Amino acid sequence: MVKEDKATWKSNYFMKLTSLLDEYPRIFIVNVDNVGSKQMQNIRAEMRGDATLLLGKNTMMRKAIRGHLDSNPNLEKLLPNVKQNIGFVFTNKELTEVRDKILANKVPAAARAGALAPVSCTVPAQVTPLGPEKTSFFQALQIPTKISRGNIEILSDVELIKAGERVGASEATLLNMLGISPFTYGLVIEKIYDDGSMLDPEILDITDEQLRASFMQGVARVAGVSLAINYPTVASAPHSIVNAFKNLLAVAAVTDIEFEEAKMLKEYLADPSKFAVAAAPAASAAAKTEAAPAAKEESEESDDDMGLGLFD
């Protein structure tokens, strides 16, 4: 197979990127730090049919995007995010489904000196396979230990590395000696481009219930403001109607005005004994529910006292 020259390869890359930009309205911008070639092959295989992963030099990506702005000006929003070691995942499927596939493929990795820790690492209390000659090593890292049957025992959990900090040589060496691989590496979603809008990946964690609750909270605020300034809106209309109906009942109660909804109110006002008649069933039902637990407690107390006296 004849290897294509550099100019041809660049031309083919630009054509592929622009065709993907035209075909797919949704793009995940992912960080590919610490992702090996074998892991990348697995990720491509798992996303095949749902998404397409494209990597390349940032300068080539920017050049291809700038050359395609005439066709789609919204692509300019991608340019500020083309930095560091990133790639594009193109898709037209549901964002949450593709997001889950992107994040699912992670592999454990040992700590390397000088690398940024993606998560915190805690060494659990344990009896290590290390001999007493390594005691000074633990002391240098301020890890409390003791000798137990010829091995070093870590007395308590110790947070050895904090997220976002660089891994020191001593910490990396200790974790490797203990056989601990504290980190997992895979594609990390930085931003999401959705048909002209740039989104943070956290937005995919918002549920329908959260959206509904936020919307209803906003409706309640609009209704409250509308009622306070006496400005009718769709949100305040039901409250205004209820308040107006209450005013009509109040007027009907002190005048001879009659309408269907006010008849029951006037009947109760004319004969207050009906209040007691209406309230009696509700009161008796409440009394029954309170009496049932009390009867149960009395039964349990009587069972406890049957024949169990110490001096009977």
What class, by secondary structure content? alpha+beta
First-last Cα distance:
103 Å
- Report helical residue fraction: 40-55%
- Give the biggest sheet: 5 strands, antiparallel
Give start-end ranges of low-pLDDT stretches. Answer: 302-312
Shape: flat
Order of helices and strands: HEHEHEHEEEHEEEHEEEHHHH
- Beta-strand segment tally: 12
What does this structure look like?
This protein is α+β, with helices and mostly antiparallel strands and 312 residues long. The chain has helices spanning 6-23, 37-47, 58-66, 95-104, 135-140, 169-177, 208-229, 237-254, 263-270, 273-305, and strands at residues 26-31, 51-54, 86-91, 107-109, 121-123, 126-127, 145-148, 151-154, 158-161, 183-185, 188-194, 197-199. The strands form 4 sheets. It has a 5-stranded antiparallel sheet, with helices on both faces. Strand 7 (145-148) and strand 8 (151-154) form a beta hairpin. Helix 1 crosses helix 3 (58-66). The model is unreliable at 302-312 (pLDDT under 50).
Summarize the structure.
With about 300 residues, the protein is of the alpha+beta class. The protein has 10 helices and 12 strands.
Give structural attributes.
3-stranded antiparallel beta sheet; disordered C terminus; alpha+beta; 312 residues; single chain
